[in-house]
Amino acid sequence: MASTPSSTPARGAPRSLTGLLPFLRPYRIRIMLSGVFLVLAALATLAFPVALRGLVDGGLVGGAAADKGAQAMALRGHFEALFAVAVALGVFSAARFYMVSWLGERVTADLRNAVYSHVLRQSPQFFETTQTGEVLSRLTADTTLVQAVVGSSLSMGLRNAVMGIGALAMLVWTNPYVMSVVLLAVVLVVLPTMWIGRRVRSLSRDSQDRVADSSAIAAEVLNAVPVVQSHAAEPRETARFMRATENAFQAAIQRTRARAVLVAFIIIANAALLLWGLYRGTEAVLAGQMSAGHLGQTVVYVILLAGAVAVLGEVYGDLLRAAGATERLMELLGSRSPVADPATPRPLPTSGQGLEVQFDDVWFHYPSRPEQAALHGFSLHLAPGETVALVGSSGAGKTTVFQLLQRFYDVDATTPPSLIGAPEPRRGRILLNGVDIRDIALDTLRAHTGTVPQDAVIFSTSAMDNIRYGRPEATDDEVLAAARAAFAHDFITALPEGYATFLGERGVRLSGGQRQRIAIARAMLKNPPLLLLDEATSALDAESERMVQAALDTAMQRHTGRRTTLVIAHRLATVQNADRIVVLDHGCIVEQGTHASLLALGGVYARLAALQFAA
User: Fold this and answer.
1) Could you report the per-residue pLDDT of 208-245, keeping only the tens digit for each?
2) 266 Cβ partners below 8 Å, 6+ apart?
3) Which of 3.90.230.10, 1.10.760.10, 3.40.50.300, 3.20.20.140 would CATH assign to domain 455-527+542-557?
4) Beta-carbon contacts of residue 134 (< 8 Å; ≥ 6 apart)
5) The pTM is what?
């Protein structure tokens, strides 16, 4: 979406932090309390030099030499005042720290939840252009930067701004001459600090990029350790990772060097400012133009002002980094899925006899391949309770049919590029029991659909929870019944802890056939009126294939007449008993019928069957 330059803040500008306002707004009361404690802590700090001046002038210098008792009492009173200021400073600072830290943690948690929930609702089109690693980086690194600013840097910046303004006002009031020179010195400190700070920020971004490179290499290789080891590539991959970490080290050293220069400059400049003020003040005391307490007060205020300026320079750098992170997070939250719930969802009528499915002149182009149609005028009708198999070569459009039926994508709503100039635009649709799936709420649509993918997905949890994933409210007995129907009960009970056994990341503790049977049990427990079976046996050995095929047959026949089943088949032997076989080629239906009728036809299916069965 294009925006005018006047309405778009510069990239990485602090104004980008306004994107956090919706996340801060619910905690207005805490923010106000934080502001109150922040101001009180700053005022307590500013009161310290005044109490110190009273101690020096009234308790040390101003007392009569002969009246030591009165002087001691005066000293006690001044020290009590100093202690009271210290107590106030400690209490208000602790309250401010707690409030602001709570706010940072809460806003960060809300932001992570919002981003994660938003990403989960994106269509596959989103992940065609956005890497999963990038999303994870935004969920972790970017939100951590935001947390640092909201929970620390912003509060620190505001506190030092109040202290700096207060110190400035006190210096103007108590010693205008010193103030005029201090202002010039502050400018001389701030400008180089900002210039060096920009260099530090640039190097920090480069360092983070290099660390991300090494992390990406590690993630890629660790997910493919068996392949790496089978090719004896451990030394090569180690060397590649070492080069990446060395690049990250060099970038970090450059950043550290620039930051060291910045720290040295700030310390030296502040020391010079302080010493100059102390020198001039000492001369004024010796000349009788200023009291010793006045000198001490002025020096402390100069220290507070210089320290505030230095901290504000650091905070500004943090704000710029967090602004960039906020921009990226807001871009993620601002992305809109092309597949969305209808404004007024229609109910999906059901009869208990499976769903009637109708593909009506469907055209579809993947967003990443707009010039190549995945489906050409695709029309197909499935009667309630019917089992239909889709066969064809890779790229024929079988998986596209599944994705459109689950509404991961929407069918083309405009004239396909190849038909521009046609008399009437083609607008295909997919109907379930006579209702366009675009008029059905996504949750309702997918609640009536069950899928067994070719590559079964196993979550890092127990076998019981994996089967129950599609129907969280199912009882243990229902889970066990689904596992038995999927021929998974025996191998699950043989696991060390049975159904409570942790299956590992991506189910690494299970064989391919066992993972498939877990996925089938999950679909059977859900018991949907529409079942989608992607070929689940193509990568299995003969024994595993036999068990999985038995489970699939059970899934298709368990509720005869009550479930409509659509099967993608690569091995034709697995679908010979389907009610109907549909042959796809380049997004079009070229043949359909029973196994026997298609063999007798002697067309595409017959040739595929001859090749497979002969083999």
Assistant:
1) 667 666 766 776 677 677 677 777 778 888 888 888 88
2) 189, 193, 310, 313
3) 3.40.50.300
4) none
5) 0.69
